[in-house]
Design brief:
mainly beta, 5-stranded mixed β-sheet
């Protein structure tokens, strides 16, 4: 696809040289002033007429700021925060609705919805980092969007709206960049688009891209020693020492076909393919050095997704009708060094000789082996969504939007914790070398009916009311845990009785909890002297048996949780004059409950967010200045709290209530050749009750993880960004200088007070970008620098396991990047 784009460009250059007027006036150049039309309320509306807190970054701004991924555009969205460990493993938060610890493949559903055009692409375990190119706009809807967008839009919604095929004329563009990263290597990207009309009723738009992000973290030489001393094991990482360890390549394409069936009905099928390959890890160990770490096994991540979507738009009478359906298939595969876990538990059991003295990390000959671990994992995520909605004419005094929605998403989970050379008898059954295995299948289903109605009480006053009735049905089935030695104890005579039971010596977790044909577990039969040779086969392929299920009449069925409810929205809008809008809003959003992948932990319930908001939108100086803002208070009921529990296994439970107050504002001014944007937020988010190790506190304070009044983690209290662009005519073109400054204050890395102290705070930082360029009507050239003073801004802090307090990692923003980019349109 990219080769074809380049070939088309080569053919186009001579024609341009012959036909382009060298005296093209600068008035033919695109304007720096954006007039943004959004579809946040399922209708085309000017952003200044939408009575909710919404920010939109249009095509022109996305191009000017050279934005290509999630991290770059969220700098400009003051209500958005996130935590990540590497590209593709990102959890998004809005307005401080964050308890931390999310993002696990079988954790809570996200609290922020993600959409690509009309289709939801919200996924478990990491937001899709869709490559940004040829995008019409990015819309950020802050606050609960439960009425129109439903589950997982509890705290807000981010929508990526692509440019659609046009039957007007053939057009295309190609853009290229090369760059170098301080303390790192070289990167770059090439992107292209072609829009081809086939007739006055059909057109095809195709986008292709390739990007390489240079590495900047070094895996430096190091050793680890394990007890006993003397006589223990010392290992080094010489085989994996590498400079610029964490490079990433991303490539893919997007195609959309628009067909006007007649003057009323349009069909738009689209397909998106993207693949990302990351090497190394994006967190460094401050104890080792700046942008350095010491890891001991191969580390990589592959993330591939493809989405096919179909949108049908038309009218029945004077009512608009829209159908939006999509199928998303996402596969990930990764390898992660887990040496920190072995190091932590070797220290934990130091009094009994470390891992060698407490566990049974033995090879087939019974010899003690190197205890380091590596986690080899994969997820296969599928999502089907369908929405049908109708909308009455927007010009009427009484207006309605209503529809039905269904989605089914599933995830086939594989997590293999390996110790090379681990003996078969102490490994997970059927998987020699595997200490612990998770092999599970998760399914989340949502059904909903929704509607919103607006009535103009007067020409200046409008009341809107909406509701969404929902049902969810979530399930989980499979295996987790250690193996069980299949050998026979001569004194017992039954299989699965030989000692040691597994490498951890565990008699409870894993195969010991698998179901037998009579519905009991292997452990139950072992303890009461019953036969132990009737294990039911694994329901999820790849596991040794099944221990996470419900036994019914000889069958193993998924564990399930379901619920139903209603979310609402009430809005009063006042427009005292042109350019002035004020609104009062009350809304709610929800996040479905689910099944803990540890079978001995109870399910967790829905959590609900209630939002109360006052906002304003002003357009001044004949549209040259826009000043928008909102004040809000939110009540978060029984919030879902994820943490690493026993054996560093993710546990989710409902915590206490939280109260969040805040303000967000943005100003945009176009004054002659100067375009200035400033956006900022203040967020005050606190718990209202003690957070305890269990949902119901003991009462004596011994189990309190975070006392009442503890600030919620991840979200900075202050976040502000400003962009400025000044352009001047130069001959037939225009030269410009552009800058960006972004600042955010510090934030807690974990809601649990002790764990937050061990991890350290996510420190505040300020970063800036600078660019100089020149553009003609068809070509542009730019020299740029990002993070110009090489700030070591912190995106997140994490550790590899619940007990791994000896080492924590910092995920930094990219160090200073200097590069050039150029593009042409044809």
């Amino acid at each position: 696809m990219i080769s074809g784009l380049l070939a088309s460009t080569a053919l186009a250059f001579p024609a341009m040289a012959q036909t382009e007027d060298p005296q093209t006036p600068t008035s033919d150049l695109p304007s720096d002033r954006d007039e943004i039309v959004v579809t946040a309320q399922k209708r085309d509306e000017n952003i200044q007429s939408v009575p909710i807190s919404i920010q939109a970054i249009g095509t022109r701004k996305l191009d000017q700021l050279n934005i290509s991924n999630f991290t770059e555009y969220t700098q400009l969205l003051p209500s958005v925060s996130f935590q990540t460990s590497q590209p593709g493993v990102t959890t998004v938060y809005m307005r401080g609705v964050a308890s931390g610890g999310d993002g696990n493949h079988s954790g809570s559903l996200p609290s922020v919805g993600s959409y690509l055009d009309e289709q939801p692409v919200t996924t478990i375990g990491g937001t899709l980092d869709v490559h940004i190119y040829d995008i019409a706009r990015i819309e950020s809807l802050a606050g609960p969007q439960g009425t129109l967008y439903g589950a997982s839009s509890q705290a807000g919604t981010i929508r990526i709206i692509t440019n659609k095929p046009s039957t007007t004329a053939f057009e295309g563009r190609v853009d290229a960049e090369v760059n170098t990263v301080a303390h790192g290597g070289q990167g770059g990207k090439i992107e292209g688009m072609i829009n081809t009309p086939f007739s006055d009723w059909a057109a095809l738009r195709v986008v292709g891209f390739y990007q390489r992000d240079a590495g900047f973290i070094d895996n430096v030489p190091g050793t680890r020693s394990f007890l006993p001393t003397p006589g223990g094991i010392t290992v080094d990482n010489d085989e994996f020492v590498e400079k610029d360890y964490n490079d990433t390549e991303t490539w893919g394409g997007r195609a959309a076909l628009k067909v006007d069936l007649d003057d009323v009905w349009t069909v738009t099928p689209t397909v998106l393919y993207q693949e990302m390959r990351s090497h190394g890890t994006y967190g460094f160990d401050p104890q080792v050095g700046d942008l350095e770490l010491q890891h001991f096994y191969p580390e990589y991540r592959r993330d591939r997704f493809i989405q096919g979507a179909l949108t049908i738009e038309g009218r029945i009478g004077n009512w608009d009708v829209t159908y939006a359906g999509a199928y998303l298939d996402r596969r990930t595969a990764s390898s992660s060094d887990y040496t920190d876990y072995s190091e932590a538990y070797d220290n934990l059991y130091a009094s009994v000789g470390g891992l060698a003295g407490y566990f049974y990390y033995l090879d087939n000959a019974g010899n003690t082996i190197d205890p380091r671990q590596v986690v080899v994992a994969s997820d296969h995520f599928k999502k089907t969504s369908q929405e049908l909605r109708v909308a009455s004419p927007s010009t009427e005094r009484f207006r309605v939007v209503a529809g039905m929605f269904y989605q089914r998403q599933s995830n086939l989970i594989h997590q293999d914790y390996q110790i090379p050379n681990l003996g078969a008898d102490v490994s997970v059954n059927g998987s020699p070398g595997t200490l612990w295995l998770t092999q599970q299948h998760r399914v989340d289903k949502d059904y909903a009916m929704f509607g919103e109605a607006s009535f103009d009480i007067s020409p200046k006053l409008t009341f809107t009311a909406g509701a969404r009735a929902y049902i969810y049905d979530n399930s989980l089935i499979g295996f987790f845990g250690f193996g069980r030695n299949p050998g026979v104890d001569p004194a017992d005579g039954r299989p699965y009785t030989a000692s040691p039971f597994n490498a951890a010596g565990s008699s409870r977790t894993g195969v010991a909890s698998c179901f037998l044909a009579d519905g009991r577990t292997l452990r139950d039969a072992y303890l009461d002297g019953s036969p132990t040779n009737t294990l039911l086969p694994a329901v999820v392929a790849g596991g040794p048996c099944t221990n996470l299920a419900t036994y019914v009449g000889g069958e193993l069925r998924p564990k399930k949780t379901s619920d139903q409810g209603v979310t609402y929205r009430f809005n009063l809008t006042w427009k005292p004059s042109d350019g002035l809008l004020f609104y009062a809003l009350a809304s709610s959003g929800f996040r479905p409950g689910g099944i803990n992948r540890r079978g001995d932990v109870a399910s967790y319930a829905t959590d609900v967010l209630y939002n109360y908001e006052l906002g304003w939108k002003t357009t001044l100086a004949d549209g040259a200045v826009r000043f928008n803002g909102a004040l809000y208070q939110q009540s978060w009921k029984d919030f879902q709290f994820s943490f690493l529990g026993e054996n560093s296994f993710t546990v989710i439970q409902n915590g206490p209530d939280a109260r969040i107050r805040g303000v967000e504002m943005d100003v945009n001014a176009s004054l002659g050749g100067l375009n200035l944007t400033v956006a900022g937020s203040y967020t005050d988010a606190k718990t209202r009750e003690d957070l305890c190790a269990t949902q119901i506190c003991i009462g004596d304070g011994s189990d309190v993880l975070a006392p009442e009044g503890t600030r919620l983690p991840i979200t900075p209290r202050f976040k502000i960004s400003s962009t400025a662009r000044y352009s001047v005519p130069i001959g037939s073109g225009r030269g410009y200088v552009q800058g960006l400054i972004a600042h955010q204050s510090s934030a807690s890395s974990d809601i649990r007070v002790a764990k937050a102290a061990a991890l350290g705070r996510i420190e505040s930082y300020t970063t800036g970008n600078l660019a100089f360029g020149f553009e003609l009507s068809r070509m542009n050239f730019e020299l740029f620098a990002q993070n110009i003073w090489d700030e070591r801004g912190q995106i997140a802090r994490f550790q590899q396991c619940g007990a791994c307090d000896q080492r924590h990692y910092v995920v930094p923003i990219t160090p200073r990047v200097i590069g050039i980019r150029a593009g042409t349109k044809f």
